[in-house]
Design a protein that fits this description.
The protein folds into three domains: 44 residues, no CATH class; 99 residues, DNA Polymerase III, subunit A, domain 2 (DNA Polymerase III, Chain A, domain 2), CATH 3.10.150.10; 104 residues, Roll (DNA Polymerase III, Chain A, domain 2). By secondary structure, it is α+β, with helices and mostly antiparallel strands. It is built from five helices and 19 strands. Strand 17 and strand 18 form a beta hairpin. It has an eleven-stranded antiparallel sheet with strand order 6-7-8-19-18-17-12-15-14-13-16, with helices on one face. It has a four-stranded antiparallel sheet with strand order 1-4-3-2. A four-stranded antiparallel sheet has the order 5-9-10-11.
Length: 291
């Protein structure tokens, strides 16, 4: 039985096609249909399926879309993405617009980006949907991004339309997660980025990065089976003293794209969340690890 008798009669796996084209020599590729297989002179063959068996795509919601600058939204999503959990069994593990903020959390940290055009408040988007939107923006980086909201999310980026399901639950109260600390430590963002990246190989899920903040100096230590790490850097703490254990991977993600020469780490107690503000409306809230 031949499926492809006319335009739109058959479908081919897009991932397999993209990998095949990427590995092929430069130049034109001529494909021929042979027994429901897409074949080329260079020996490439891809199975096809009937278009009637292809899953039906969701309709793009009607209405006026919310338009975003592609570079601004791409940078915001790349900052938020590490904090979105792949676990969709709980509504807290997603990304959601809250008025003019976008918030992402995985239960251990929260990333917040402010001052963006608002979307539907409190509707969580799963991580897979966020990743698809990021890929589309990278492919068409100069084209405005249009968000359509309805039973599903539809994002139009140039000729590409990305659809994603939404998590059927309300987003929890994020304000209760952000503490209001009165103490803090001002520290070089570049030095803290270096410490976070260098110490990561010497930490694991049970043993984090030990941080000791004192007057004029921050000491960092980490050790595991791979070895040990120690470093001290200058900080301004105004007499504030604290010892705390942190996941350095979370610090790496929180400092992503930071262009400020120094940042303020807002600190509470040994088991209180810390707040990392890196400018451009970006804030990270990180839960410490138990000693």
């Amino acid at each position: 039985m031949r499926w492809c008798e006319g335009e739109g009669d058959c479908a081919v796996n897009a991932y397999a096609l993209s990998r095949t084209v990427a590995s092929a020599p430069k130049g034109e590729i001529d494909f021929t249909l042979i027994d429901n297989t897409l074949a080329s002179i260079g020996g490439i063959s891809l199975p096809i399926q009937s278009a009637s068996d292809y899953p039906r795509l969701p309709d793009v919601p009607e209405g006026i879309p919310t338009t975003y600058d592609p570079e601004e939204l791409r940078d915001a999503l790349m900052y938020l993405l590490p904090a979105v959990s792949s676990d969709v069994s709980r509504n807290i593990h997603g990304m959601a617009w809250i008025d003019s903020r976008i918030i992402a959390t995985d239960g251990y940290r929260m990333h917040i980006v402010e001052d963006l055009p608002p979307g539907p408040t409190g509707v969580p988007i799963p991580k897979a949907g966020v990743e698809l939107v990021c890929r589309a923006i990278r492919a068409y980086s100069k084209v405005p991004v249009e968000y359509y909201w309805g039973p599903t999310l539809a994002v139009r980026v140039g000729p590409a339309i990305v659809t994603s399901s939404l998590i059927d639950a309300g987003y929890p109260s994020w304000e209760n997660v952000v503490p209001h600390h009165t103490a803090g430590v001002r520290i070089s963002s570049r030095d803290l980025q270096t410490v976070s990246a260098e110490s990561t190989p010497y930490t694991d899920e049970r043993q984090g990065l030990f941080c000791h903040f004192d007057q004029g100096q921050a000491d960092f230590r980490a050790s595991n089976e791979a070895g040990s790490y120690e470093r001290s850097i200058h900080c301004e703490s105004n007499g504030f003293h604290l010892e705390i254990w942190l996941n350095p991977r979370y610090l790496v993600d929180a400092l992503r794209g930071c262009e400020l020469p120094t940042i303020m780490l807002e600190l509470g107690g040994l088991l209180d969340p810390i707040i990392v503000r890196t400018g451009a409306g970006r804030t990270a809230v990180i839960m410490p690890m138990k000693p």
